[in-house]
Amino acid sequence: MQGMDCSGCERKVEAALTRLSHVEEVSASSVTGSVRLTALPGKALSHSQIKSTLKALGYQVIDESVDTAESKKMTSWWQSPKGRLVIVSGALLALAWGLKFAWPALGSWPFIAATVVGLVPVIHRAWQALKVGNPFTIEMLMSIAALGALAINAAAEAAVVVFLFAVGELLEGVAAAQARRSISALSRLTPSTARLLERGEVREIAAASLQPGQRVQVRPGDRLPCDGQIIAGHSSIDESPVNGESVPRERGEGETVFAGTVNLDGVLEVEVTRSAENNTIARVIKLVEEAQAAKAPVARFIDRFAFYYMPAVVGVALLVAIVPPLVSSMLWSESIYRALALLLIACPCALVISTPAAIAAGLSVGARNGLLMKGGAVLEQLGKLKRVALDKTGTLTAGKPTVTDVESFNGISAGEIVRLAAALEQGSSHPLAMAISDYFHNEGFYPEGTQQTGVTLPAVRGGRALAGQGVAGQVEGRELMLVSPRYLQRSNSSANDWDVRIEALEQQGKSLALLLENDQPIGLIALRDEPREDAQKGLQALARLGVQAVMLSGDNARTVAAIGEQLGIEAEGELMPEDKAQRVRQWQAQGLGPVGKVGDGINDAPALAAAEVGIAMGSGTDVALETADAALLKNRVGGIAEMIALSRATMRNVKTNVALALGFKALFLVSTVLGYTGMWVAVMADTGATVLVTLNALYLLRYRFNDIG
């Protein structure tokens, strides 16, 4: 939709559409310029009825299902209905002033004509809102004020007021459109065409038609049209459009690349892994638009305040119009004039736009820098965090462990242990699983009589993840499990001959995976993962912000303690998923919160859900991303500090905007009631406050992290 630029518009739209048949829920967002409707179960919505209702309210309606890219193109301001109204009413106002001096005998008729022409669309929108049960709108206040001014022979001021109101609405719309462009620009990162590879030939097709399994060629300088895996080639990839990282990354065969990133110097052959509607850019846009539509608690409070504020203002204006002439010598025309001016200055536009505009800008800044927050409530809560719990593997450590030891039992070869373990871990994105798989392929642990090229791992039947413990399944008819040593203790099994060896390896800071067959150990794989290069710097940034970092890990206590000591933070190991969630709840009960939880795997999901704010590392599992309230696409610990700093900057902006809006209102309300300011000054003050808070919110789009993390 075009023209829905404030929360007053949202209320009108929601009130009108809720009355339509078969509508269960309506959610309008002036921030995204869209409205979403949910039908009653088993019912269908009438698109034509929806469009006609919205058009009657004065909005331009666009069907995104036809062509999303084209639908979001913004017209120039002078081509919009608000722009045309400003031009026409401005020209008529100038003509009226000219006629006033050229033909004084015409009196106020030119101003009346200018007022009526400019007021007709305003009255129409006010009437449509009134018909759907929403009488207290800005259009209604403006209509009453302008018609009242005509009634007391203040036609010139009425014409000026109508013109200034049109200018204010236009400026509000332009500012809102500018905020929306920061997100719509993301949709333009993905190229419209892709070079499809088929049977050795290359042909161009629409990028939106790409499907998983297809292969595309990406030349140097081209943007990647899809999320995928590099099949052939090596190049530097500029990933800044997706995650905000300024330094290009070297990517080669087997590595993942994302739609919208730029291939800098080598020809790549990429296999598509996600369809266009599910690629990284599409997911980011969807998350941000949903986030912008979800109001923060402070925004909901201001909306509720405005809902009761406008009827109260009308009541006060009536008192200002009626009481003074009854108790003093004030003329009725003067008291009515002051009441009408009071209606204009009391319009809550600046107040209601102060919060959503700032929060939308904050969410946009985050999205451009690889920091996704699922709503204004999350953005608001992030700045309040006092403690953050972080997972170890893949979060504080590099997430690229290497196999250091392989030991077998009962005469089974080390190669067989690795082969079976790699088979169980097929398809897993967990760093330990990928390390075992890489070790199998790199070291050449293949069955006797086979060649390395073309060998595949045996299939797993009944494969399943054991949250916080490992994986299990049937491989070549054998019931196998790959678990942590802790599993043996929990299952009352005995590791007798392994106890000493397990303890020795764990004291070296290594993570262990035991291979069990029918619940009995047959092999052991030890891995070591070093802290990330950015971990120390990111943790220091959190400390500077006054946020305490704690490591919670399912790994063995000795390994976790060693990493924690190296990073200089509190650490606790051997925690099951429910244990991590319990720690979070304990801190909350002790008043140590609000608490944030950062993780990247299935075992983090309960704690992510328990925390006030759950933050997923972007390369983690879809379960973690769906459970979390926020996501770090850049996979840097410093990103957590950047999120918190951005939240605090946004909330400072919100407080500044609210103070500006209320300050303007208070100043001019007093001066208007006392008779020092007139109607046109009141409109200018209201318009000025609205534009000022919007520009202040847009200034947040220039926010720089200044190497926070």
* Largest sheet: number of strands, sense, barrel closure: 7 strands, mixed
CATH class identity of the domain at 363-396 and 532-645: Alpha Beta
What does the radius of gyration come to? 32 Å
Question: Helicity range of the residues?
Answer: 40-55%
The CATH topology assignment of the domain at 363-396 and 532-645 is Rossmann fold
What structural class do you assign from the helix and strand content? alpha+beta
- Poorly predicted tracts of residues: 66-72, 448-454
N-to-C span: 38 Å
Strand content: 15-25%
- Annotation field: number of helices: 25
Name the CATH architecture of the domain at 363-396 and 532-645: 3-Layer(aba) Sandwich
Structural write-up:
Keywords: ATP-binding, Cell membrane, Membrane, Metal-binding, Nucleotide-binding, Translocase, Transmembrane, Transmembrane helix. It is found in: Cell membrane; Membrane. Residues 1-62 form the HMA domain. There is one protein chain. The longest helix has 36 residues, at 638-673. This protein has 709 residues and is an alpha+beta fold. Helix 10 runs antiparallel to helix 11 and helix 13 packs across helix 24 (638-673). The radius of gyration is 32 Å and the shape is elongated. It contains 25 helices and 24 strands. The strands form five sheets. It has a seven-stranded mixed sheet, with helices on both faces. The chain has a six-stranded antiparallel sheet with strand order 4-3-5-11-6-9, with no helix packed on it. Residues 66-72 and 448-454 have low confidence and may be disordered. Among the domains are: 7-67, Alpha-Beta Plaits (2-Layer Sandwich); 193-278, Distorted Sandwich (Calcium-transporting ATPase, cytoplasmic transduction domain A), CATH 2.70.150.10; 363-396 and 532-645, Rossmann fold (3-Layer(aba) Sandwich); 402-447 and 463-528, Calcium-transporting ATPase, cytoplasmic domain N, CATH 3.40.1110.10.
